[in-house]
């Protein structure tokens, strides 16, 4: 019998999964399950007897646990990760095609299929950082700033939160002034005036907005999504379509690269769902680190 450690964020999403409900479903499927809440101290003291980790939460919880794993020495035991997504956007799980009812996801773990997952290593900030979803400049970090102030005004349901965030982003795009950004991707320069530069490892970012339809987080490359000043109206139309429940296909400028140098004129930058506040514009270098994590996914 495989042993799992369930790392649960009880406040994620719509808070609709309890400790007893989750452990019951997992154990009924034949896995031994130890429970730890990520809201309590000691959750990151992983046992060597554990075969894999289960993350029940959203993208922020996945990133928090990935941080703990990245701090481990490479000689220490490494753990495959299974996800039970119940955050707001679930961009990481969506990119890995993990969705559906909890009991159906748990059944897929018997297949033992592992998917390599790259990270983007960031240099040039006060401390070295990494991202799972993306690093970006412009409108998305501004969205994070506004949403932090509106937290108490948004409804509790996932749909309400997603719709509110998309509406706020639309207002930001309407009034955002494009800024200069110097970008060198694998030695080729793509500098210009942009409202958004997103270096992504997942298909979607922010309020579940799919920008890179074919992103493979384990291909050893990152995707750079560029929204120049000349495409500002196009991005407004894209957001309005999504706000109204549409699914019209929009294609934006996307460049694949392994090594990226970036100089952003402004101070609006983010790493995953964390807004950074540099005192001055920074010179950033980003390098892909292939296969740093492994996720359990459904087989063919």
Automatic annotation (TrEMBL):
SMART domains: DAGKc. InterPro entries: ATP-NAD_kinase_N (IPR017438), Diacylglycerol_kinase_cat_dom (IPR001206), Lipid_Phosphate_FormReg (IPR050187), NAD/diacylglycerol_kinase_sf (IPR016064), YegS/DAGK_C (IPR045540). GO terms for molecular function: ATP binding; kinase activity. Residues 1-126 form the DAGKc domain. Pfam families: DAGK_cat, YegS_C. Transmembrane segments: none annotated. It comes from the Bacteria. Keywords: ATP-binding, Kinase, Nucleotide-binding, Transferase. This is Diacylglycerol kinase. It comes from Dyadobacter psychrotolerans.
